[in-house]
């Protein structure tokens, strides 16, 4: 499979981008409905980077971020990781609560709210992919971490670590005033890429 | 002049006093700082997984079982002696709060592998900050072997 990663054609990449597009579009709609505000998304990109550069994906390796990790289960397993800066976390939580948020001291209910956002985004993302591909992917319960970006990114992509490169489908969600910015990574496990592409009728051999 | 060298994930570096070797953002990964106190030579490696699959084109510094022997070898080439070496360890955390799957277990497995390999090489562990649920940064001062651990949850400390 790492072989396929080394030989991805532009057709393969376009197909994966389209998966990201459909998934993220649906997730952005769900996110906007949840927050009752406009949410834009960037055009998804398919990123293939050396595994050692994974900790730098969201910028500062040591900057503190808030994240939700979900396992994708079903025929083509993988992971979904959602990463918000601390400032975005505060803005996000203040949109759905009516009090001031202390990001250094998040209450249990606030952590639950962030995890629920992860649930909603991952669920709507996977639903769209399922409809497009005929696969039946579903997500695990969300897990939460508020810590150094590098530690979070490397630990959540450990299932890829045997490969030299990581493939991720990345989108950024931004609300109208750019007060909220979130990275959304869909990370198919090694071996899942082929199944995803084949489900779209694209040959990989 | 002391040089500060950043060691990225799945990489290693050998330096000599007064170099400072740094690895940032250890989550489930483990940072291993080996030090020869007599020759003032230090090596730092940032491993991701316990065991390599034995493939030909693997990156040895990614795995505990291939990375630690490589680091020892490179330190010896640089003039260090294995019998002088001591180890300080950090990382192996379990970053996400939920149950199950390999993402969570990997930190623990990394720690076990590092312990086993250092024991095989008879290198004593004289300091560690391992496990729990938070990310860490290591700064290794080859001048005297001190290792500073920085984390958001616990602030700074030396091991």
In short, what is this structure?
With 205 residues, chain A is of the alpha+beta class. Helix content of chain A is 41%, strand content 26%.
Topology:
The complex is a heterodimer of chains A (about 200) and B (about 160).
Chain A: H1 2-6, H2 10-35, E1 39-41, E2 45-50, E3 64-73, E4 78-85, H3 86-96, H4 108-133, E5 138-139, E6 143-148, H5 149-156, E7 165-175, E8 181-188, H6 192-199
Antiparallel strand pairs in A: 1-7, 2-7, 3-4, 3-5, 3-6, 4-8, 7-8
Chain B: E1 4-6, E2 12-16, E3 20-26, E4 30-36, E5 41-47, H1 64-77, E6 85-91, H2 102-120, E7 125-130, E8 136-141, E9 147-151, E10 155-158
Parallel strand pairs in B: 1-3, 6-7
Antiparallel strand pairs in B: 2-5, 3-8, 4-5, 4-6, 8-9, 9-10
Helix pairs in contact in B: 1-2
Strand percent estimate of chain A: 25-35%
Overall average pLDDT of chain B: 93
**CATH classification class of chain B:** Alpha Beta
Instruction: Give me the number of helical elements of chain B.
Output: 2
Q: Nearest-angstrom radius of gyration of chain B?
A: 15 Å
Largest sheet of chain A: 8 strands, antiparallel
- The total count of strands of chain A amounts to 8
Please tell me the total number of domains of chain B: 1
Terminal residue distance of chain A: 10 Å
What Rg of chain A is obtained from the alpha carbons, in whole angstroms? 16 Å
* Low-pLDDT segments of chain A: none
The count of β-strands of chain B is: 10
Distance N to C terminus of chain B: 24 Å
């Amino acid at each position: 499979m790492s072989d396929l990663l080394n030989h991805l054609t532009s057709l393969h990449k376009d197909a994966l981008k389209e998966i990201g597009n459909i998934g993220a579009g649906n997730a952005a709609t769900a996110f906007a409905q949840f927050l009752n505000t406009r949410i834009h998304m960037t055009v998804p990109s398919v990123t293939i980077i050396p595994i050692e550069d994974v900790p730098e994906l969201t910028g500062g390796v040591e900057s503190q971020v808030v994240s939700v990790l979900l396992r994708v289960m079903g025929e083509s397993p993988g992971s979904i990781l959602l990463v918000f800066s601390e400032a975005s976390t505060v803005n996000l939580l203040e949109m759905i609560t009516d009090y001031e948020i202390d990001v250094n001291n998040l209450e249990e209910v606030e952590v639950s709210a962030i995890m629920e956002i992860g649930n909603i985004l991952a669920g709507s993302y996977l639903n769209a992919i399922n409809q497009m591909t005929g696969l039946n992917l579903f997500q695990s319960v969300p897990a939460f971490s508020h810590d150094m970006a590098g530690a979070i990114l490397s630990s959540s992509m450990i299932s890829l670590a045997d490969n030299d490169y990581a493939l991720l489908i990345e989108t950024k969600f931004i609300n109208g005033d750019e007060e909220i910015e979130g990275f959304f990574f869909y990370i198919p496990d090694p071996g899942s890429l082929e199944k995803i592409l084949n489900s779209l009728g694209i040959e990989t051999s | 002049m002391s040089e500060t060298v950043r060691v990225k994930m799945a990489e290693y570096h050998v330096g000599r006093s007064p170099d400072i070797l740094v690895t940032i953002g250890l989550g489930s990964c483990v940072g291993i700082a080996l030090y020869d106190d007599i020759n003032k030579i230090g090596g730092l490696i940032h491993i991701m997984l316990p065991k390599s699959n034995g493939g030909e084109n693997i990156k040895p510094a990614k795995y505990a079982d291939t990375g630690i022997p490589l680091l020892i070898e490179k330190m010896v080439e640089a003039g260090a002696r294995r019998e002088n070496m001591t180890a300080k360890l950090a990382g192996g955390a379990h970053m996400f709060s939920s149950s199950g799957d390999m993402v969570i277990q990997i930190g623990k497995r990394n720690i076990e592998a590092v312990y086993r390999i250092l024991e095989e090489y008879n290198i004593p562990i004289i300091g560690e900050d391992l496990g729990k649920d938070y990310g860490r940064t290591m700064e290794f001062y080859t001048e005297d072997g001190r290792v500073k651990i920085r984390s958001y949850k616990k602030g700074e400390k030396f091991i």
